[in-house]
């Protein structure tokens, strides 16, 4: 029986002192015989480096075959931090983790065995559940995707809601090239699309929620304009390289506009909410009208034009309906 391959975990960290020790503890609890952790402090301004020093020492003592290294650098962003970590990684398999997410016990073996079972597969990722800033469940899980995914699938409806838990073969990542340090967001999406564009590439979801994805205000995903700018850059690259055609690109942008509209709503930017929803509707009405997600955004946009008492009532309904819809999805997937 061959030895288990070494897995290198790349963990960029920027101002995540309250969370990163929990993330590393969740990695320490994984039952894998050869696990290497490369943490990159990307110029944090809080106590992240001090927390990392202590947590990495505990990781090394958590079992045999454990090694860890801390890389420090000036703030260069997520792409630069991941590239710095990869430069130090020695494993044949690479796992990515964000400094505020949590992996379930058994997540790494489940992902590694899924990748091993599909020799032609180059990347696997798990479903995730959402938790709030304090770690409380939000009653929402990412959807289940049974089919193999293409680069176009990733752009249209990125099912990899968080890069924590993405596991891939090192050679596939080397072929795809380094992370783009200049992207303001969608750094992972860009890389995974390039991996998926390789000849014979196979990307699969492990159909279990193995990661707790923490939503908090300071994340990149909390800034819809930054999300938009990164997505637009990735989409332009996909169009120029013929990864996605014109019609599929229009549909993908329509759906992305609904995601940005949700961010605008959360920020209280009603004018942007209306503009984004109407833009999505103009590009592809079916994307908006054909899903609960789209119809709810349309109601929110319409309500923003009404007198405040009416808008508050409709907004309260919108939030209840969104939560009920999320809860129903979770129950259905169990």
From TrEMBL:
Highest taxon listed in the record's lineage? Bacteria
Q: Organism, per UniProt? A: Roseivivax halodurans JCM 10272
* Positions of the Glycosyltransferase 2-like domain: 8-175
Specify the protein name: Glycosyltransferase 2-like domain-containing protein
Pfam family name, one: Glycos_transf_2
Xref: InterPro entries = Glyco_trans_2-like (IPR001173), Glycosyltransf_2 (IPR050834), Nucleotide-diphossugar_trans (IPR029044)
